[in-house]
C-alpha cells in the first residue's frame, strides 16, 4: 500500500481541523473529539510525521463556492487545468477560468486563481509550526534531520508558487507559526524584492538538499521529497529568476549560468532519464525513471475522473480542457517542417504526419479512441454531424474548439459513471524532460548554442521520434527552438502560463484570438476546414503578468499589504 496516501486516509479527518482551530474560550469546557491537540501531536512521533505528510497534500480550500477541494501543490487536476488560462486550451464550461482568459482579473475576482495567496501562507505557517516544535518530538536525530529537510522543501515549494504568481511577496521566515501571534505590526506585511524572494526560496532548497535522501527506498515513501526533487525545484526557480520578467527585462549572464549549473547538477546525479514512451509516461504506475517528484494515487483512492471531465460528448464526457487551434498549429510535421495552412498538402490532411506528441496529447477528428474514430465534424445540408459534434448527445458539452484532451487520459478507466472506479493516475510536478529543457535554455542564454544545448534538446526530440535541430543556429534562433520545444513537450503540464510571462511575450500570445476549427462533412464525403473563434474576448494587459493580491487579504492586513501594480 502506498504509505503516502494511506497516511492521508488515516489522519485526514483528524488533521484537517488540527491545532489551529481551537477556540480561546471553551464555552462548555468539553474536550473536542474531532481534532488532535498540540500536546498529542508533539508527544507522538507517528502523529507528528502524519502532520508533516499532510503538508504535502496541503490546505484543502475551494476554487469557488461548492467546487471541490484544491489539494496538494496543484489544483486537483480534474476540472480546469492551468492550461485553460493560456493559449493551450479553454475550459469548455468556464469553471471560473474565463474571467482570466478575458482579462477581467481584479482583487475581488481572481477566478480559479483566487486561492493561491491564502493557502500558500497558511501552509507556510503550518510548516513553521512543525519546525518550531520538531525538537520536542521523540525520534532519532537522523529521522529529525530528514523531517526538517522535508519541511524546508515544502516551504520552498510554497514560496515558489507565491513568487511565480505574485512576484514580490512577504517573506515571513520562521516568525509566524500560530494564529494567536501579533499581526498588527506593519513590518510583517512588507514585500521583498523579487530576487530576494528567489534567493530565500533557493536557500531553503539548499538546506533541504543536505538532509534529503537521494531516493525513497520503499513504496510507502513515494510522494515525499528527495534530494533530486529539491535540486529540480532549485533548477526551475533559478531559471525563472534569470528570466526577463524577474530581472526587469535585462539579461544577467551570471544568473543564467547559475540556472544552467543547477540543472546540470540534477543531470549529474545520473539517476533520471527520459521514459521511453511519451504517452505512457503520464499513465505509468510502476517504475518511471523520468519522474523526479509527483503526487501518487493508489487503488484505495478514487481517481480524479479526468476521463469524464475531459471526454468528448459523444462518449458521455463533459468536454473539459479543450485544446486550441493555436497549439495544434504549432505541432511540426514529422520531418521537422512547420505546419502551414497555406500548404495545400498540409491543409488537405491537417492531422497527417505530425509530431508524434500531437497524437499522444490531442483528440482530433478521426483519432481512434475507445474503439471508434472521434467525430467532431458537422454536416453540410443533408449530412448528419458526428457523434462528438453539436449533433451528438449532450451537445452542451461539445468542444468549443473542435478538439479534446488526450494527454493524461487513461482509456482503461470509465468515462460514464466513473464514481467508485479506482485509478492510478499520478500527477507529475517535476520530471527529467523539464530539467533538460531548463538546462538548454539557461546554457543558451549564458554562452550561446554550444554542443551541450543541442544535446539536451535533441535528446527530447529523439524520444519523440522527431529529427534533430538544424545545426548552426544562432543564439536567437536556438532561443525560439527551445521555447517551441517547451510548448510541445510540456503541453498541459501547467508550464505555459508561467513561461510566456517570464519571457515577457504574454502580451503578444495571450492577445491572439482563442481559435478552434469547424470541420464540415460535405455530401460527397470530403471534409472542409475553417478556423473559428473558440472563446470571444481573449485579452491580456500589462498588469496581468502578476496576479492581484485578493482584496480580502489587503483588508485583513489593515491595508499594510501593498497591492500589485495595475490593480486598484
Task: Summarize this structure as a short list of keywords or feature phrases.
11 strands; disordered N terminus; mainly alpha; three-stranded mixed β-sheet; two-stranded antiparallel sheet; globular; 568 residues
Overview of this protein structure:
- This protein has 568 residues and is mostly helical.
- Helix content is 39%, strand content 8%.
- It contains 21 helices and 11 strands.
- The strands form 5 sheets. Strands 7-10-11 form a 3-stranded mixed sheet, with no helix packed on it. Strands 1-3 form a two-stranded antiparallel ribbon. A two-stranded antiparallel ribbon has the order 2-9.
- It is globular.
- The model is unreliable at 1-30 and 60-71 (pLDDT under 50).
The side-by-side strand order for the widest beta sheet comes to 7-10-11
Largest sheet: 3 strands, mixed
Any idea what the radius of gyration is?
A: 24 Å
CA(first)-CA(last) distance: 50 Å
User: What proportion of the residues is helical, as a percent range?
Assistant: 25-40%
User: What is the percentage of strand-forming residues?
Assistant: 5-15%
The total beta strand count reads 11
Uncertain regions spanning at least 5 consecutive residues: 1-30, 60-71
Count of alpha/pi helices: 21
What is the averaged pLDDT score? 89
Given the C-alpha coordinates, what overall shape results? globular
Structural class: mainly alpha
